Backbone:
């Protein structure tokens, strides 16, 4: 993420975290924030993060949403390491939404990255308090005591943590800046694969997802939303719907614009989900479709082309790319357009949220990537203070960025305010797919040239897209959410020019797994392959050469961006190449492609092997090498990379959202097809050993996936795929 | 009029619209929520249960159509996660978000009853109509093969995931 608008900063500008202030601020509501409320509280780790009962049972608390990415294991592992308890003795639980736990927003591949030091210091402080308690009891100095396996030892004497907890938790919390952390070589747990804590409950039906919440007296609700983006209810007749047995109420809720972007619509409340869905079909609604009703994928494509044909906003202009390209010899010059469509998140569990609002307090059960925001929304809409709003974060059936949005909790709260009972808002699959916040569509004109020695003498990238930043805040620079690693060019390029303009679109868009890196990774690494081909070079060797000497590449636009380390970039390329047997001959009709990308401060290189037969592509194998600093739970890391690759393959080969008459044309899995098991390649993941601070891995496996596959298709067939997803006719 | 059937060995009787899909009767009327709603059109497999032993997508079977029949849901596989398919799922660390996994497991259990010693390609065919957005297919494939081994008391075959630290 290059510039001002990362996922986090957008959320900061649109939603000031509510748990902290006592009420979330959603722009548009504009409620002032309590003064001084952002001060960090002193948190006693032995009452917040760590619970030890007198029998020694250890419960570790995790504060990020578990959506399958494994934070309910990896985060407690970090605590357990510094606390010095045996993993077999650990139980875990999700944090309540309370100030002590800080922001619970879960995204940007940031959970381990951001919690690494806070959890280590919390664990180490707790250990220090337990040691101090033991030393007091023995009348010795703490320096002669050591903590090990849930006990404090002095020579051959030991006191179990359970025996110490009462005294220890009363002691002053040590200064977190100066607590003694373990050295990496002392780690007993971090770096070893442990089974995930959440998996057993996911094999017997006992894991409670948002839709599984059952509260006494609860009812169910669905909302009829305008099929056209931005449309509104003009009038409705609920007579037929209300006549159905089990229907309790039908009413309209308004859409909430800024920050939330909920549609509003006609709500049906009923005794069961099915009755609510059936009754919704009987509503007669006169819609005001609004101005978006003429938008289509084709009109957007025309707009994109007009934009890249025009003079665009110059973001970067290093050297003299325009001139070098216009004067380059035609056989050393490439000019081509890349296109990517809207993509739906299509989480397996559609959006939902259960809320109960009583006069003296509220309770919510939210499958949300931002449960503190849910608390804030409820506070905002009801006027209740944060300490009267209990939010339970449930398991969630996939998230991929979608569950960071405020629309579904806002709707659920609006409905609960009227219903006065616990109410579960359920989105049908069709609701979910046609009212998503989609991965932006984009169009890219790439021009470049190599010289006789194979140097990249020019690279020009003109990009148009439906900007996320602009969607959330029209005052934000629209390109700030769209450029990704283009502002951190890892390769040696003599003249480099970057231009951008946003396209006008009513289609909601936001963060989809790996966000703009899913786009930029494809474009940069496909074009790099094209340049290698123009230079007559091996695509792997060409990349290694162009990385040049070890250096740190700063973000050319955002000075706060973390520099890209070309040594680590090169490292993952080399490891992926080695493990894939790069250069070994393949049978006719098969090809190997490579791509690497830097996103979320992590480095990933993928090699794909494909077979193309009768115009049909089969991805046989994907080899991935990742450098994310210290690996906390290696098998969890592998699972995330496997998942990101499959998600990326679906977007490269199968799925897209197209627009007609201002509506999404795909509304269920029969039209939005995903990679099946028989199409899933063998995936091998290799982790670069490291002892530096860890970075994220939920997303970075995705960006190098599509380009590796398309580069492999080129190697197999000589056909360059520049428009995703691959169409059946592309290789015919 | 009440409709009666059996769920996980227990007699159930419900008084609902007979056209209500079994899925919603399980989830909303009987509060048996392990069976998941994913698509409502039998396209994703998250709602797979066994009806008289046959793997079936409960989102498109009306409750009237299962009157007098025996339903098994994920909750009915074992009392303690001891079913070999559940064991294999845990050993291979197959689930991520876990939402599709009830349907995946119920599909796999029924498949292994038909084909006790499948090849990897046969597993692919059997499991390819269950959607997982987290991308766990590789691990599910390994888990089905491992479950087949466990059911035969054979030594389980290797780890699913390629690569190494």
Residues:
């Amino acid at each position: 993420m290059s510039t001002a608008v990362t996922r986090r900063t957008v959320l900061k500008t649109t939603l000031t975290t509510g748990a902290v202030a006592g009420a979330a601020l959603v722009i548009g509501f504009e409620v002032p924030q309590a003064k001084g409320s952002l001060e960090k509280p002193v948190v006693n780790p032995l009452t917040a993060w760590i619970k030890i009962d007198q029998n020694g049972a250890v419960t570790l608390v995790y504060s990020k949403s578990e959506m399958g990415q494994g934070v309910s294991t990896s985060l407690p592992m970090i605590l357990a390491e510094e606390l010095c308890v045996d993993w077999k003795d650990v139980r875990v639980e999700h944090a309540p939404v309370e100030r002590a736990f800080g922001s619970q927003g879960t995204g940007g591949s940031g959970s381990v990255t951001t919690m690494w030091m806070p959890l280590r210091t919390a664990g180490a402080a707790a250990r220090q308090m337990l040691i101090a308690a033991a030393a007091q009891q023995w009348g010795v100095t703490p320096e002669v005591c050591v903590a090990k396996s849930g006990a404090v030892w002095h020579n051959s004497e030991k006191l179990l943590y359970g025996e110490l907890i009462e005294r220890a938790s009363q002691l002053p919390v040590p200064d977190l800046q100066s607590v003694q952390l373990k050295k990496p070589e002392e780690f007993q747990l971090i770096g070893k694969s442990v089974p995930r804590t959440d998996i057993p409950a996911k094999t017997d039906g006992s894991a409670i997802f948002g839709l599984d919440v059952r509260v006494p007296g609860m009812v169910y609700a669905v909302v009829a939303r305008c099929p056209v983006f931005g449309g509104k209810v003009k009038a409705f007749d609920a007579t037929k719907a209300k006549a159905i047995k089990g229907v309790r109420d039908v009413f309209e809720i308004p859409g909430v614009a800024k920050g939330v972007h909920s549609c509003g619509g006609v709500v049906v409340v009923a005794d069961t989900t099915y009755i609510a869905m059936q009754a919704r079909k009987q509503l007669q609604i006169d819609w005001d479709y609004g101005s978006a009703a003429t938008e289509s994928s084709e009109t957007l494509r025309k707009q994109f082309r007009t934009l890249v044909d025009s003079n665009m906003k110059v973001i970067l202009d290093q050297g003299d790319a325009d001139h070098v390209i216009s004067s380059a010899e035609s056989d050393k010059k490439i000019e081509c357009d890349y296109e990517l469509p809207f993509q739906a998140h299509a989480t397996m569990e559609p959006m939902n949220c259960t809320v109960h609002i009583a006069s003296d307090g509220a309770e919510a059960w939210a499958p949300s990537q931002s449960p503190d925001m849910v608390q804030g929304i409820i506070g905002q809409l009801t006027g209740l203070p944060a300490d009267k709003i209990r939010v339970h974060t449930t398991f969630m059936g996939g998230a991929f960025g979608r569950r960071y949005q405020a629309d579904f909790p806002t709707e659920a709260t609006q409905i609960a305010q009227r219903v006065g009972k616990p109410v579960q808002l359920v989105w049908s699959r069709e609701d979910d797919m046609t009212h998503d916040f989609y991965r932006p569509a984009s169009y890219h004109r790439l021009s470049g040239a190599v010289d006789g020695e194979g140097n990249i003498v020019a690279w020009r990238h003109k990009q148009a897209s439906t900007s996320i930043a602009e969607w959330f805040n029209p005052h934000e620079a629209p390109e700030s959410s769209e450029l990704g690693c283009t502002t951190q060019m890892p390769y040696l390029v003599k003249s480099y020019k970057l231009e951008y303009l946003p396209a006008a679109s009513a289609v909601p868009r936001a963060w989809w797994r790996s966000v703009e890196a899913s786009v930029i990774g494809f474009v940069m690494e496909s074009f790099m392959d094209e340049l290698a081909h123009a230079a007559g070079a091996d695509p792997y060797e060409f990349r290694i050469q162009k990385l040049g000497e070890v250096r740190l590449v700063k973000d050319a636009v955002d000075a706060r961006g973390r520099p890209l380390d070309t040594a680590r970039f090169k490292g993952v390329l080399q490891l992926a190449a080695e493990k894939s047997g790069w250069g070994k001959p393949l049978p006719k009709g098969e090809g190997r492609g490579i791509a690497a990308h830097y996103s979320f401060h992590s480095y990933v290189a993928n090699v794909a092997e494909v077979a193309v037969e009768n115009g049909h592509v089969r991805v046989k194998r994907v080899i991935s090498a990742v450098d994310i600093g210290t690996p906390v739970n290696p098998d969890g890391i592998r699972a995330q990379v496997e998942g990101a690759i499959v998600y990326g393959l679906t977007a490269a080969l199968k799925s897209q959202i197209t627009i007609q008459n201002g509506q999404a044309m795909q509304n269920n899995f029969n039209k939005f097809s995903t990679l099946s098991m028989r199409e899933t390649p063998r995936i091998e993941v290799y982790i670069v050993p490291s002892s530096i601070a860890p970075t994220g891995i939920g997303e970075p496996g995705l960006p190098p996936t599509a380009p590796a596959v398309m580069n492999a298709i080129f190697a197999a067939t000589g056909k360059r795929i520049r428009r995703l997803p691959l169409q059946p006719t592309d290789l015919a | 009029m009440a409709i009666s059937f059996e769920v996980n060995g227990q007699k159930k009787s419900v008084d609902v619209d007979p056209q209500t899909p079994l899925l919603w009767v399980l989830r909303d009327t009987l509060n048996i929520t392990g069976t998941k709603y994913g698509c409502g059109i039998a396209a994703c497999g998250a709602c797979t249960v066994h009806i008289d032993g046959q793997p079936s997508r409960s989102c498109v079977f009306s409750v009237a159509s299962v009157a007098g029949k025996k339903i098994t849901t994920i909750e009915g596989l074992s009392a303690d996660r001891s079913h070999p398919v559940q064991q294999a799922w845990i050993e291979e660390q197959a689930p991520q978000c876990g939402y599709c996994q009830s349907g995946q497991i119920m599909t796999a259990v029924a498949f292994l009853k038909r084909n006790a010693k499948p090849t990897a390609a046969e597993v692919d065919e059997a499991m390819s109509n269950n959607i997982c957005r987290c991308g766990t297919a590789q691990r599910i494939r390994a888990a089905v093969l491992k479950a087949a081994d466990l059911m035969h008391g054979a030594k389980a075959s290797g780890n699913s995931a390629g690569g190494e630290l």
Remarks:
- Residues 1-37 of chain A have pLDDT under 50 and may be disordered.
- Chain A touches chain B through 75 residues (CB under 8 Å).
- The two ends of chain A are 37 Å apart (CA to CA).
- The first strand of chain A starts at residue 15 and ends at 16.
